[in-house]
Amino acid sequence: MEKLLVETLCKFIKMDIGTAKVTEEEKEGIIHHCVDILNPDETYSVHDFQQTVRKKITEITQRGHVPIIVGGTGLYIKAALYDYQFDEMENDHHAIKIIQMNNYMII
């Protein structure tokens, strides 16, 4: 068994408070993926997560282990497991930053 953590903020290094990030003691020797993989100033979309998790699921099953997806972000779970497709704008981090800098709300 290996766990894929889906909590949105747990991906970020040094964001340990208020993120429900699992401690080393709580891991109980079980491998956890998608934890502390980004710096807080890096962008990471649901599409990026989808690609990462699908790759990890393949790697884990090839090792003969069972991937367990845990966490609380439903969109991320569904994007990883179902055929969600994202258009180019949703994956264009530069465009999103420009929109955010111009004080537009992205919904």
Helix- and strand-based class? alpha/beta
Per DSSP E runs of 2 or more residues, the count of β-strands stands at 3
The backbone outline, from C-alpha atoms, is: globular
- Unreliable stretches (pLDDT < 50, length at least 5) are 98-107
Mean pLDDT: 80
Tell me the major beta sheet. Answer: 3 strands, parallel
SSE order: EHEHEHHH
Estimate the helix proportion, in percent. Answer: 25-40%
Strand order of the largest sheet: 2-1-3
Number of helices: 5
How much strand content do the residues show? 5-15%
Distance between the termini: 36 Å
Provide structural commentary.
By secondary structure, the protein is of the alpha/beta class. Helices cover 39% and strands 10% of the residues. It contains five helices and three strands; from the N terminus they run E-H-E-H-E-H-H-H. The chain has a three-stranded parallel beta sheet with strand order 2-1-3. The chain is globular. It starts with a strand and ends in a 6-residue tail after the last helix.
